[in-house]
Amino acid sequence: MLLLTMIALAVAMPPSDRPIVIAHRGASGERPEHTLAAYERAIEVGADFIEPDLVLTKDDVLVARHENDITDTTDVAAHPEFASRKTIKTIDGARHEGWFTEDFTLAELKTLRAKERLPQLRPQNAAYDGKFEVPTLAEVIALAKRRSKDTGRTIGIYPETKHPTYFASIGKPMERRLVDQLHAAGWDSAAAPVFIQSFEVKNLKALRKMTQVRLIQLVASEGGPADGAQPSYAAMLTPAGLKAIADYADGIGPEKKLVVGDDGKATTLVVDAHRAGLKVHPWTIRAENYFLPPIDRAGADPRAHGRLRDEIARQLAAGADGFFTDFPYDGVAARDAFAGTGK
């Protein structure tokens, strides 16, 4: 009912003004995350941007993994030749035990295969375990460019720098490597189909000096940047904090409940951010009841799919300029319905 009401009230928007649909780690609700298959599926169903989280290998190649800890997203534990590389590390203050990308060359990583990170919630995705490699940033860029040509529409990329301070601390700064690859692809302006995002501040400020592509400051409902540049995310979301973000970034990527609370009511964040000249791209909208606010759940099974399109509609009604979703098919349908196209 909510979605139908919003469709009736929506004013048709030209394509350039429509909120963007960002495929979170690809179509990760349908394929194991951060695989070329997940990105391909996202493009197939109409996503505007595909999102690779970026980490570095031992030989300094940027690859797409949610974390540098690959214990839960690859079959590395099943490779006896890598058993001795299991270790314990402290990353951004948190203890991790497992296997890490920075201890593997790209050639070694390519012998591994991806697996579903959330098999209990997404058992259908686990059927694809063992089928796909760990992709490089270069492969993601090539895919976006090739599919842009094939489809006749621009497919953008939305990379996130993961743990940049940690990587810098082990002699692997990420910023120049990322910028060089983007510039080699011809992407060095605010018009490029690229957003770079980070939960940290200092690396975004460093990137601002290296490139003109758009930058997004990620913020969560709790905690603060791992680089200690600000005392908390809450402090960054005050009017003064948003104005400071606008000095080095083009937008913010807030946790979704910072835009619309679990009670379905919008906050003032989008209005405040727009006043500071910032775009707003909330994260992450997923279909499973486990991730949905209570008002959008369907039944009690945490794996069952609820009304994610209603949640998307509320984010758009609050003024969001785009959104991250694991289910870009539903994201595109909800966005286009809200925009009044019905396509």
Short account of what is shown:
Keywords: Glycerol metabolism, Hydrolase, Signal. InterPro entries: GP_PDE_dom, PLC-like_Pdiesterase_TIM-brl. By secondary structure, this protein is of the alpha/beta class.
Write the layout of secondary structure elements.
Elements: H1 2-9, E1 20-23, H2 36-44, E2 49-50, E3 53-56, E4 62-64, E5 87-91, E6 94-98, H3 106-109, H4 123-126, H5 137-151, E7 156-157, E8 160-161, H6 164-169, H7 175-184, E9 195-198, H8 202-208, E10 214-219, H9 233-236, H10 239-245, E11 251-254, H11 269-275, E12 279-280, H12 308-317, E13 322-325, H13 328-339
Parallel strand pairs: 1-2, 1-13, 2-7, 3-8, 9-10, 10-11, 11-12
Antiparallel strand pairs: 3-4, 5-6
Keywords for this entry:
13 helices; 343 residues; TIM Barrel; four-stranded parallel β-sheet; disordered N terminus; 14% strand; 30% helix; globular; single chain; alpha/beta
What features would you describe in this structure?
- The protein is of the alpha/beta class and 343 residues long.
- Helices cover 30% and strands 14% of the residues.
- It contains 13 helices and 13 strands.
- Mean pLDDT is 95; it is low at 1-14.
- Belongs to the glycerophosphoryl diester phosphodiesterase family.
- It catalyses: a sn-glycero-3-phosphodiester + H2O = an alcohol + sn-glycerol 3-phosphate + H(+).
